[in-house]
User: Fold these one by one.
Assistant:
Number 1:
Amino acid sequence: MHLSDKEASNLALALRQCISLVELDLLIMYAKINKKSQNEIVQALQNCKKMQTLRIKFELQGSKFKSDNSDEQMIALGKNIRKFKNLQNLLIWHDIIIGTEVSISLINGISECTNLSSLNLSLIFENQLNENDATFSQFGKLKNLKILKLLIVLNHENGRKGFPLIHQYLDQINLLEQIDFCFRATIGYEYLLNFGTSLGKCSNLKYITLILFSVNNVGYQGLKAFAYELAQIQHLFVLNISMGRIELQIPLKKDFIRKNKRLIKLNISLI
C-alpha cells in the first residue's frame, strides 16, 4: 500500500505511541513520500524500545544517488536501534549511497544490540574501502549472532576495489552458524585469502554462501589456498561459492574438503 505524505505522518504519530511494539515490517519508498515524512517515521522508532524483530527497507526507483537527507536518516536509525536491547532479528535494505561515517554510525548502533540473533544488511558505499576502514570494527560485540547476511556494493566506478574488513571480527562472534556474503566490487589475492582465513576460524559455521562478483589477480594457487582455509571448518554442512571475472581453472571440489567431513552440499561456480 502506498501512503500519501499525510498518511505517512499519521503512521509516524501512531508509531510514537506503540511503546509495546515487538515486530515491524516497514517499506519506505523515496519517490512516494516527502523527506519530512520519511524523517518522521525513522524518528518515531525511538519509542519502540521493546522491539524484537525489525525489517525496514528504503527503496529507490531509478539510478542510485547520494542524499544528505538519507545520511541523516541512517544516523538517526543507528541511534534508535541501539536502544532496542531486546532486538533479535534485524533487516535493513538501503538503496541510497552512503558515506563511511554514516555507515560507521549505523553499524555501531546495530552492534549495541547484543541479543541480536539474525542480521540481514544491504548497503551501498560511496567510496572504496581500505585497510584503515573501521566500518565493521564493533561487530565483535554481537556475541549471540547466528545468521549474518550482507550485500555490500561499492559505487565508486573508477576504484571499485577494497574489501570490507569485517573478516577481522568474524571469529569474535562465537555462535555464528550461517553467513551469506555478496560483494559487488573488485577484490584481489590478499583480501580473498584473509577472508578465507577468518572464516576458517569460525568453528561453528554450518552454512556459507559467498558471491564475489569480481576476483582479480588471484590465480589458481590463490584460489586453492582460499579453498584450503575453508576446508578447516569442521562443522560445515553447506558451502556455495560463486565468483566472477575469473579466466582460469577453479580448484577441485576435493580441495574444499579436509576437516569438514560433515559437508553435504558443495557448489562452486563462475558468474
Number 2:
Amino acid sequence: MSAAFGGARSFSGSRIVGEALNTATTGALGSPRLAPSKGGHVSKAGRPPEPWKRTMIIDAAASVFTERGVNSTSLQDLADAAGVSRAAIHYHFSGMDGVILGVAEQGYRLMYTLRAAAIAQETDARAQLVTMMRMGIPADPPSEYLVMYESIATFRANIDFLPVMARMSKDQFDLYLAIVNRGVAQGYFRPREAVEVIGWNLLAIEDAAGIYITIRTSPEAEVMRGRILSYASSSLDCDLDEENSRQRERGVG
C-alpha cells in the first residue's frame, strides 16, 4: 500500500489536500492552478457560507459515490450521508452536478499536491518520473480519485465543466514536461520524439489506466505501471527498471 495513498478510503481528502499544499513546492512542480469551481453557492464576500459544511458534504459524497456509483446516488442519499437537508446541499452547490464536480476537484487536488510534494523530495529526474508514474496509477486509489474518473461523462455533458477538465489535464502535463526537461538537462533522458509528445502520451496512458481501474476491467496497478514505464523508458532511451524496483520496495504509489 502506498505511503501517500495507503488507507486513503477512510480519510478526509480535504484534510490531506490541506497538508499536502503546505509541503508542495511552487512553480512547475507546485500547487495546481485550478481555481475553485462555480458549482457552489457563493456569498457576496466571495466565500461559501459555512465552508466546513461544504467540505463535510464533499467528504460524505466521495464515500457514497464510491459505494453506489455516481449515477446511482440521489440527492437524498447525499443528504442522509452528510447528515444535512437537501436544502443545505442546494445552498452550497448548484445541485448534483455541483457536488460531483466538487468531489472530482478534490480528487484532482489530492492527486496533484501529493505527487508534487513527493517529487520535490527527489533531485534525480529518473526518480521523479517514476514517482510521478507510480502515484498516478495508485494501487489503492482514494474515493475522490475514483469519482474523478467516473465523473468524466458528467464533465463532457456540462459545458461549464470543460475549462476545469482542461486545467486538470494541463497541470498534469506540465508536471510531466518539467520532469522530462529536467532529465534531459541532467543527461539521463535522450528523447526519441518531441518532449511535448512524450509528456502528453504519458498523461494519456496514465488516464487510460485510471479509467480501466475505476471500471474494474484492468489488471492490477503494478501491471499498468509496467506499461507506462515501458513507454517512458523507450521514448526517453533510459532504463527506469532499477528505480522502479527501488520505489516498489519502498511502497511508493
Number 3:
Amino acid sequence: MKEVLEINEFFIEGTNQKKSHVLLHITEPGTPEELSKGYFFALAEINNGTLEQIEYLQQMIDDLESGYYETNDEPEKNSFEITLEYINRRGHHILENKEALINCIIGVIRKKEVYFAYHGKPNASIFYQEQGELQTMDILSDQNDEEKNNQLFSSILQGNINEGDYLFVNTPHVNDYFTNDRIKKLLSIKNNRQVATHLEKTLQDINSEYSFGGIFIHIPSYLKILRPSNQKKEAGSIASLNQMIDRERNTDEIMSPPILGALKKNLNNYKEKKKEEEQTKNLLRLQEKRRQEINKIKKHGNIETNIRPHSNRKKQPALDGILINLGKALVTGTLWIINFLKLILITFFRILIGLFFFITNKDKRRQEVIKSVKNNFKNQKEKINCLSLFSKIIFFIFIILAITFVSSLTYFKIKKVNESKRIAYSNQIQAIKDKQMAAEANLIYNNNDSALTMLSEARDILNQLPSDSPEQMEEKTKLQEQLEENLNKIRKMETKNSELLANFTTNNDSLKIQKIAYLNNEIIAYGQDENNIYILNPITKTIETKNLSAIKNLKFDSTPKENDQIIFITDNNELAVYDLNSKLINKKEISYPINNIQYGPIFIYNRKLYGVDRHSGQIYRHNSTQTGFDQGVTWLKNTEDLSNVISMAIDGDIFVLKNNGEINKFTKGEKNNFIITGLDPILNNPKEIWTYNDTDKIYILEPINKRVVILNKEGKMLQQFTATEWQNPTDMVVRENEKAIYILDNNKIYRFYY
C-alpha cells in the first residue's frame, strides 16, 4: 500500500532581507511514476546574498526537482545521485559570490529511505522512541565543516526512518531559539502540525532580522497495524542512521571522502544529559558566532520577498477527524444562522404588517394592532415574572452583557473611525509641511516652477483639510498663512498706486463705459449701448463728449501702430473709423467671404485688419482699400474652437485670449503650443491681452484677481501688478514707451506707472 508521511513546514520572513533570505520547497508525488520516487524537499538560507544569487539557487532547486523525477535509476547510482552530479557540474556560479553565506540541504524520501546532501551548516535532527522515551540526535553536528570550494554538495548521506520517528531539518538560526531538547519536549505533548505552528508563531513574534524555515517529516506510528503480519520488521532508525556514513557514495564530480564514525559518536555523546546553564551559554556563543560571521560579509542592496514555490499538498490522514468535525460544525452553524435569520425576517415582516394597519387603519384594525402589542408586552412581562430569582438574574445579566457588548462594539468602531481620521489628518498635515519645505528649497536655487508645483499641491491638500474643531481651524489658518507667504515670493505681485483720471458717473449715474482706446495722447471711452463717445485728456483730465449719429453699438476696437485712427467693429459686423482730425466716427466699407459671420475682437497689424469669427472658428485677414477694407481671406489653415475668444493681439504671430484663461498662439496659420508657467493663481475669466512686434512682453488683464499679468513670449510669468483702488477692471491700454497702463474700472479710468 502507499506509505503516508506527515510533512509540515514553517517559514518566517525576517525584517532584514538583505541579511537573511530563506527558500523552502516541498514536492509531493502525484503520478504513479512519481510515487515510486517519493517526496522531494529543499531548504536554504542565504546571508548577504544578491538577488541574482537567490534566483540562481531557486533555479537550481527547480532543476533538482525536475531532474530527480525525470531521471531513471541506474544499477550503480540512483536518480538523486545522478541529478546531484549534474548540478555540481553546472552550479559553480552559485558560489562565485564569496561574500555570501549559503546553508542548504536537499533530500528525498523513498518509502522509509532518506537520501540528502547539504552545503554550509544547515541543521538536521532525528527524533526517535527508545525505551518508551523520545530521544534525539543531531545528524550533521560532527560532519566536517570544510567543503570543496568549487562544489555545492560534496557527499550524499543515506539512512532509514521508521514509524513514529521525526526528521527535522531547519535553517541555522532556528536553533538560536529552539534547541533539540526543547523541540523534543514539544513533540512529546503536541503532534507534528502543532509543533510546526508553535515554532512559526513564536519565531514570528520575535521579529528578528533573520528569516527562519524548517520542515518536520513524520511517519505516524499507527501505520504499523496496516502492515501485513508476515512482513519483516525493519531495522531501527538509529541503527540505519548510524550506518549513513558507511553508505556514503563518492563520485568524481561531487563526492568528498566520507567521515567515518561521526554519527555513532554523536549518538553516544548526545545521550548524556546537559545542564541548563551550560546549554544557555552554548546557545549564546552560537548566536554571537553566527552574527560575527555574517557581519563580516559585505552588505548588498534590497532583496525581493522570499521565493517559495510549493506544489499542491494532499490532505493528511491525521487531519481527517479534524476536517469531519469542522464540517459538522460548519453545517450546524449554517443551520443555526439560517434559522436565526428566518426568525428575524418573520418578526420584521410582522412588524411591517402591524405598522401598515396602524398607519392606514385599514378595515379598522388599528385598535387590533394596539391591543396585540399590549398583549405581547403583557405576555413577555408575565413570562419574566414567572421566572425564578436565579433565572431573572441570569436574564438581566444577559441583557446587561448584550447591551455592554453592543456598546463596546459601537465604541470601538467609533474609536477606530476617529483614529483613522486622526491618522489621515496627521498625514495630510505632514504632506503639506513636506511640500512647503521642498518648495522653500527650490526657492533658494531660484527654481520657481518646481516651487510653485509643490505649493500648488500643498494648497490642494490644504483645501481638503477638515476644520471641525477650533484646533483644526487654527492649524489650517496657520498653514494657509505660511503657504501664502511662500506663494507671494513666487507670484511677484506688486501693489501700485493708481491715479484716478476720470469718473464718468459723477455727472451721469446711468453711463456704462465698457471699452477704452488710446490715440494721440487721448483716451476714447465708449459703451456698446451708449450714444456718445467720451474723449479724455490724461494731462488736463478734461472730458469731451461726441455724439454717435452715424453709427452705434460699438463692440471692439484696434489702434494701428501709426497712431492715426481707431478702427471699430459693431455688433452687426459694420466697420467704423475714428478720425484724428475731425474727432468723429464715420462708417467704412468692409465685406466678408461668407454669410452669417460673427466677428469678435479685431486687430490692425501692418495696415491689415484681422478678425476672429467666433461662429466658423476662422481668422480672416482684410487688406485696406480707399473706402475701408476688402472682402478678406482665411488666415488659419485649419479651423479652431474660437467661440469664447474675448481678445486678440498680433506681433507677427497671433495670440487669442479665451474667457477660460487659455491662450492660443498661431504662427503662419498653424497652432503652436503656448503654456503659461510660474503663474499663481491661474487666469480666471481674463478680459484683455496686448502685445506687439516691438515688445518682448505680453500683457493680460484679469478682473477677478484685480491684476495685470506680464508674461514673456514663451509664457513664463515675469511680473504682476494690482492696486487697492481697483474693484472690477474690465479693459486696459498699455503704453510701454511711457511705462504706463490705463485701467477702466466701473466707469472710472486709472493710470499707474511700472
Number 4:
Amino acid sequence: MSSTRPMRAVNKKVVSYNDNLYDEDGDANNVFPKPLPVPDMNDLTKEAKKIRMSLHPSYIIPDEDKLLVKACEIRGCKCSTEACPNVAKKLECPKHCKRGCRNQNFRRNTCVDLVVADAGDKGSGVYALEELKKGRFLCAYFGDLISPDERNRRKELYKDEGLPHDYTFQAGSFFIDPTKRGNIAKYANHSCIPNMVAITYKLDGHHKNLMVIGYFAARNIGIGEELTVAYNFDYDPENSQICLCGATSCKGFMGKGPKKEDMVAEIPVRVPSKKTGVIGRVRNTKNVFKKQQVPKQANQPSVEALENDENNADVARNGENEQIVVQHVDHLDQEEELREQIAILGPERRTRSYTNDVMKKLK
C-alpha cells in the first residue's frame, strides 16, 4: 500500500544561519523566526550576479593610453599567487593567458555563492552561503564606468532626486557607479571591523589609469555570515552617514573621518566624577568638530557660572585628596552666599569634605 504522505524534496541546497538549517526556499522544519533568503531577495541576487561592468560613453580610451598586459610565461604557474608577475603587480592576466589561469576574475565575472538578504536597521546586506577561506576572491564591484565630469553631474542629479545612498566609488582616474545598475557587491554594508578587503586591479585592454575594485576575504568567513567592507571615501560633514556596524571600535560614521584641520585639537572641560558627581579636574577632550558645543552636564551648574560669578567662590580640584576647597572668602561678608552655594549644589554634590572646608572658613 503506497503512502499518501507528500514527500519532502531532498535535492535542495541547505544553508546554515544562526545555528539553524535552511533549504534554498527558506524552509527549516517550520520553527525558525526569520529565514535568511526570502523569495524577493533570491530574485534580486540572481539579477545582481549577472550584471557586469558597463562602459559609459564618458569612459574614453585613447590608443596611447590602452593597457596591454603580457601573459604569464612561467611554466606550471596557475596565476593564483604572487609567483605570477601579473598577480604581484595587481594586473589581471589577458584572455589568451595559459589554460588554467586563475587571474581572470573580472573578465569572467567570478562570484562566490552569496545572497542578498535583510540586514535589520542597515537595510539589505550580503551573506555567505558557503565557507570562504582567507584571501579568496569573492566578487567584483561592478556598475557604470564613468568619467569625473559624469560623476559630478550624477552627484547633483542624485541629490535632486533625493536618493538616500550614493554607491559611487573611485576607480583610479575614473568612477564606478552602481547606484541604478550595479552587481551584488553594492549591497555589502560598511563595518569598522570588516571581513572583506577591497583590492584594486588593472585590466588588459582598458585605460592604464583605470583601477577596478575586487572584494577578497580578509579572514575565514562562515556560512550565513554577513560580508562587510570598510568604506574609505573622504569624510563629508554635510553628507556623513552614521555607522550601524555595532563593532566595539566603531567610529560612529562611515568613511575615513574628519581631517585634523576640521577638528578642534583640545577643548578644556571640567568633567564630573562618576562616583561623587562633583566637578573635577580639567580634562582635554579630543575629536570635537568645529562649531560643536560641548553639552552641559544635566542638573549641574555650568563651569562658566562657577568661575565668572563674583558672588561664587573660586573652585579648584585638589589632586591629592580630591576635595573641593574654597579660596579668597571673607567669612563675614560671604557667610550667607557660602551656605546658599552648598544648598544649590544638591545632596549628591554636597559632600562631607566640602561642607567641612566651608564651615572652617566660617569659624
